[in-house]
Amino acid sequence: MxxxxxxxxxxCALATAQGVGAIxxxxxxxxxxxxxxxxxxxxxxxxxxxxxxxxxxLIMEGEKLVDEVLATVFKNPKSFTKExxxxxxxxxxxxxxGSILKLLVANGCKIAKPGEFTQRAFANGQFDLIQAEAVAxxxxxxxxxxHKAAMHQMRGGFSKKLAELREDLxxxxxxxxxxxxxxxxxxxxxxxxxxxxxxxxxxKQLLPLISSFDEGNVIKEGVPVAIIGTPNAGKSTLLxxxxxxxxxxxxxxxxTTRDTIEDILIVGGRxxxxxxxxxxxxxxxxxxxxxxxxxxxxIDKSEIxxxxxxxxxxxxxxxENFEAAFNNKKLLFVxxxxxxxxxxxxxxxxxxxxxxxxxxxxxxxxLTSLYSLEQSGDIVxxxxxxxxxxxxxxxxxxxxxxxxxxxxxxxxxxxxxxxxLHHLGEITGTITTDDLLKNIFGKFCIGK
Length: 448
Prior knowledge:
By secondary structure, the chain is an alpha/beta fold. 45% of the residues lie in helices and 18% in strands. Helix 4 (129-140) packs antiparallel against helix 5 (144-154) and helix 7 packs antiparallel against helix 12. The chain is flat.
């Protein structure tokens, strides 16, 4: 069922980033908002112009000129919100922006809440909840992989897949509900074997979506990479070489890094979260031991571990003491300081000089090869809310299968099918609550 907003009073907000810039865009949307802008716009009468046209004019406060602007008019339903909308492009002075917003409010606008424009677009049937959330993900995308995932969801790829699954389930749910209406006549409209086959088919499509969340989380949050090694192996120097800045303290004194240091770098279109850990060695220093303990936790949380050392003895020590921690991790064995001795390349390791920058780019290439963009399928679940409801959908469908195995009556089957439909509907926004919408759209920036 299409949601309709009840209050469509005009709203306004700055749609571009805060701060001084060459231009800024102020977005206005809602009932009679074009007439409202006309009151402060001197130029063509905007209520008489065609939709999707741009017009030069002046913003006036009585007889006082505020700014020369461009006004872009969008008439319902052919706008982002499916309401009448105007976008005012003005100069990026904070004084000008504030003056125009004050004029709009004085003439009947209210300042938009975070995400209110997108919430109105959702409420007016412009797109579903998955696509609405993808708008925020697209704005926040800081890598090619995150952009690709958000763009696919915004264009409806994930929504279409869920709609197909839901449609088949709705058919069987209606057949079973029909059986309940004829309960005394002992009729069966929904073939149980066909229902079982349908659930198996749905699970075949559902489980890959659920398992894609690990990949999706990595795309959104970044691949965690722990840099571990013995003290003074050059971990901080390597982190600084990756980032091209002195993020970490570099010293010849062993044990300088006593906590984890973390930063993000986009490499090959993929986000990596590098964690420089404390040097690992036997020590009596209480503070240093806390740092080493945190290093172990960093290894546990990482997808990739860069094992950094400057000689075979240190490499052997790390392998002996952290073999269990390295389990199921992607490992890169890196020999540092190859510029200070007669380095002989060993099989399975990368020789670098973090200080001189030798082979650091090659190391980054190896890193990206462990997580290539082509790994991701067309549909990747990146949203925790979606993931949780997919899990609950799967659990409800498993209950249907258990019920079929145990020969339960149609009313119990109908209950579990309805539950699975409910969770699928929660993802797309077919089923919503005010609290859910407030939570989702409250995280958007103002002006979107």
